[in-house]
Design goal:
The protein is mainly alpha-helical and about 80 residues long. It is built from four helices and no strands. The longest helix is centred in the last third of the chain and has 30 residues.
Length: about 80
């Protein structure tokens, strides 16, 4: 990929600042660790993902976990009655 002379490295730096502005370095490593340890993603799979793709998978995973927790809570409440 060729970058035009006027954008140079600054254009690439700006792109990555925009793409990662919502994510700190600590959060990045904690998220990768959790995905590898608890959900069996490999580090190479995580590194191959583009940032928005990883965000989508994490969002879907959080939604799934919330739904499972709600089901568990409902089952516990139905047993108590």
């Amino acid at each position: 990929m060729r970058v035009s002379g006027r954008d140079g490295v600054g254009g690439i730096t700006k792109f990555f600042r925009i793409m990662f502005r919502h994510d700190s370095l600590t959060n990045h490593y904690q998220t990768n660790f959790a995905l590898m340890q608890h959900h069996k993603y490999s580090l190479s799979d995580l590194e191959k993902m583009v940032p928005w793709e990883k965000t989508m998978y994490v969002t879907m995973l959080l939604r799934f976990i919330e739904e499972e927790n709600e089901k568990t809570k409902q089952q516990i409440n139905s047993r108590k009655k």
